[in-house]
Structures are given as structure tokens and as C-alpha cells.
């Protein structure tokens, strides 16, 4: 996962949570947004052990 990806996911989760608080989205939307993060990490092929050292 690129370095910016966790920041974008964090921002997306905060936006979904704020929309949930404002009653724009249903309650399950925040839970779904948080639970998709591990699946995204697997799908993008995050491999800590394969990173090149500088």
C-alpha cells in the first residue's frame, strides 16, 4: 500500500462517520467502511517483507 493510502482511508472513514452522525447514511455504513480496510490491504498486495531498503 502506498504511503498516502492509509491517510485516504482514514479520511474516508471519518467522512462516512460524519455522514452517519448527520443521519445521511445508515449505521452499518461506518462499520462497513472500517471492515473493508483489511480487505483493501490484501487486495493491493501489501508486503512489508518485500520492501526495498534504501
Quick overview:
Keywords: Membrane, Transmembrane, Transmembrane helix. The chain is mainly α and 54 residues long.
Set down the secondary structure blueprint.
Elements (H helix, E strand, L loop, with lengths): L4 H17 L6 H16 L11
Helix pairs in contact: 1-2
Walkthrough of the structure:
By secondary structure, the chain is an all-alpha fold. Helix content is about 60%, strand content about 0%. Helix 1 (about 5-20) runs antiparallel to helix 2. The protein starts with a helix and ends in an 11-residue tail after the last helix. Keywords: Membrane, Transmembrane, Transmembrane helix.
Pick out its properties.
about 55 residues, mainly alpha, 2 helices
Number of strands: 0
- What distance lies between the first and last C-alpha atoms, to the nearest angstrom? 17 Å
Q: What profile does the largest beta sheet have? A: none
Structural class: mainly alpha
* Spans of at least 5 consecutive residues with low confidence: none
The coarse overall form would be elongated
The proportion of residues in beta strands is under 5%
The helix tally amounts to: 2
Query: Residue share in helices?
Result: 55-70%
Order of H and E elements = HH
* Rg from alpha-carbon coordinates: 14 Å
Q: Can you give the mean pLDDT? A: 74
Amino acid at each position: 500500500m502506498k504511503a498516502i493510502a492509509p491517510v485516504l482511508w482514514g479520511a474516508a472513514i471519518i467522512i462516512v462517520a460524519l455522514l452517519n452522525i448527520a443521519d445521511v447514511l445508515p449505521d452499518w455504513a461506518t462499520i462497513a467502511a472500517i471492515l473493508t480496510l483489511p480487505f483493501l490491504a490484501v487486495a493491493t498486495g501489501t508486503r512489508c517483507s518485500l520492501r526495498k531498503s534504501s
